[in-house]
């Protein structure tokens, strides 16, 4: 190995997702000299691929909108959701810091949020549940504001976009549904299409950014504004450890080793281990079928280096990842497209999930259908619908209106048959059971009550359904031939297994003492939720909140004891 060059910084942040960017912004905005290094050639990490929402009890935006909340009730809610393994010290730190994080970013940076109305917490049976106000979404952003960094921002999952690649937001969905009936909606969609067409004359993709791409772009712009130095294609090779403390990192840049010495500390924000095959086999059930949606660089680098420095994982979790139902298309030329079945199809009226026995195995409108797949061994499974459904809502990569249906049938991604019995043979399911399952589901759809899995009973299910459909937004019959199926697999959008930290995001050793100079945030810290999240945006909010906490601690070492 060639002789290493050496530079010195106050803080080095490893990873450019929401947690790393937030930590860097907060530290730099308080006068520290901050370098952020990114392993891959794109900034944004997992956050750029996400829905972008953050779950923040007692936030000021909801309060200004007249939506009351209470920190003690939020504490009780999370306490009951997570159970006895909850770290109460971290929960208290989160509930105090999360609203301050929102206000700080809104006041001091280009980051802007809005209350996403109509999204309830995920556990309505638990004390402290709120039906509205805790989910904030990033305000859409003009990618042109990033200048040369626009092309360095990790694009969203293409499967979230409209045909051609135009980004959409949740607020666009009602306009899409009404575009043929409402002139206002038609104009709204028309303006989006026109802007996208003009963008494509000058840029590789549309500049109207929504969801996680908007959040990451705003954070990236903010990091640039406060003077964070940003390096891409700069993977960390090791931590620099001296006398029990972390004094910096060694990275590779332009093929050469570079030693970065830190005066205040290192923040690990490398994104967990979803792209590490060996760790998936160790921590994920049905690993041979598992499909991850996270960036290719999330291979557990921060976790492995920290454990070599004396850190350890924070005990057993309820679940080791944030699970997502995924379907996969193998295209000619070797490209693999992964579609996350979040809210566009499986919870809508007239779609069910069937296992190899030809039976339903869970509530298709629940946020965590993968848990039911794991528990019942329904891996792989299939989503089933009829012709009327696929034309209205789409199915997987088939867009609403049936766009792409013929092509995707030809590729084998969508399987179709004129009868349910024939479809059962095509998907390898028991035909008698499939026919009986659909008949039972149709009877329950007519009554509006799912007697088997209570689909559509809880408020948390309703955003997955169709509010215009009665009597139950999530239940509708499967009647109109031909019938369609798409194979679904368990996947993840995040890992939850991570390092044990304290309430200042300092990494702890085996004796629960802070390792001097080492912080961990985002997916490198063990999830506060321990695999049972309280609501939409709960993973993003941990990233931004503990990034905020780490940045504050590094900027005030006399108070946090980081040095």
Structure write-up:
- The chain has 563 residues and is an alpha+beta fold.
- The protein has a domain at 322-492: Flavocytochrome C3, Chain A, domain 1.
- It has 16 helices and 20 strands.
- The strands form four sheets. Strands 1, 2, 8, 9, 10, 11, 19 and 20 form an eight-stranded mixed beta sheet that branches.
- Strand 9 and strand 10 (245-253) form a beta hairpin.
- Helix 1 runs parallel beside helix 7 and helix 13 crosses helix 14 (431-447).
- The radius of gyration is 24 Å and the shape is globular.
- Residues 558-563 have low confidence and may be disordered.
Short description:
The chain is α+β, with helices and mostly antiparallel strands. About 30% of the residues lie in helices and about 20% in strands.
Calculate the terminal CA-CA distance, rounded to whole Å: 31 Å
Note the main sheet: 8 strands, mixed
The helix-and-strand class reads alpha+beta
Number of H- or I-type helical stretches: 16
For the record, the CATH architecture of the domain at 322-492 stands as Alpha-Beta Complex
CATH topology (level 3) name of the domain at 322-492: Flavocytochrome C3, Chain A, domain 1
Q: Could you tell me the number of beta strands?
A: 20
Low-confidence stretches: 558-563
Name the CATH superfamily assignment of the domain at 322-492: Succinate dehydrogenase/fumarate reductase flavoprotein, catalytic domain
Query: Which of globular, elongated, flat, extended, rod-shaped describes the shape?
Result: globular
Rg result: 24 Å
The fraction of residues assigned to DSSP E strands is 15-25%
Mean pLDDT: 93
What's the helical proportion of residues?
Answer: 25-40%
CATH top level class name of the domain at 322-492: Alpha Beta
Domain FAD-dependent oxidoreductase 2 FAD-binding: 10-538
Pfam family, one: FAD_binding_2
Keywords: FAD, Flavoprotein, Oxidoreductase
Organism: Halopseudomonas bauzanensis
